[in-house]
Amino acid sequence: MFRRTWRRWVLFFLAATLCGLFLASQSYLIYKSYESRAIPIVPVVVLALVQTWTWFLLLPGILAVANRFPLYRGVLTRNLAAHVVIGALFALADIAVRVLINSRLPWYAAAKPVPFTVRFQNMFLNGFHSNLLVYWAIVGATQGLAYYRKLEERELRASQLETRLAQAQLQVLKIQLQPHFLFNTLHAISALVQKDPDAADHTIALLSDLLRLALETGSEQEVSLQRELDFVERYLEIEQTRFGDRLTVRMEIADDVRDARVPSFVLQPLVENAIRHGIAPRSEGGRIEIIASRRDGELTMLVQDNGQGFAGTAIREGLGLRNTRARLEQLYGAGDRLVLTQAPAGGTVVTLNIPFRTRILASAAGAQP
User: Per the confidence metrics, is the pTM higher than 0.70?
Assistant: First the structure.
């Protein structure tokens, strides 16, 4: 911290020096245009440096005043009045310091003595307004930097709140998944224990793998599509122990999208809805298709069933779909990321579009354990 502060003040001093050299060059050219005789460069440079170095000496006080009287809504009028008075005092203090320093310079000492009040009056006429401009420029820069920092802090807090909300939604989804799904799975296992012990053992192994994948995911907001498919495949295998030949599954996954990042547990509620509302009501069962491809910089995923669909009825989204839609909005912004349509041959198609990327999203990275 000390080293950073020290470097900052060194930079301020160098900036004051460069500003002084710039003013010296301007003054030298002005004197040269009016004087026919040669103008010594050293006094011109020294006087300009005295001016800007005096600003540097007064800078800590100006910064303290700017921080003490911020120009925010609610205190703007009062603090603005304070700055008007303090700015004038700064301009006068700068003139007084420069007069005192200049009177000690050798060419001033060799010249005809001039009373302090006369020198102060002359310098007041030539420098008071420019000093006011310097004061307000420093105050303005300080206030601008303060606004920028507050904006950064506000954006950081908003990002953190969005991350917490997405985490909470993920936890809601996991809580929603586990009791309902575990109840159905345990019920299926109990039915198989007497009838088909081997199938019961296989279902228990699948359930163990599924729970392991859920625990490994933890609080991750995004996982690879392949990892999400592994989870869904085990989920579907368990469901197939319940439905048997009544449930068929087809997956069509392009090879170039398996490493794409997707929200964790995003496909499971879509598949569960397809089974519950599309396949389960049909005595002959049905088919579920999961398709993923890359198109125009986006990852498109489809979950389609050949069930009864929703023709002639209003679409009613359950908690799983609403939660999924909210998570997509938090992670990727507003937009039609999840769309439900009626399949031409009957059934429902859920289309999911998210930006294609193979790296972790910044807001999702903040949620990593």
Answer: no
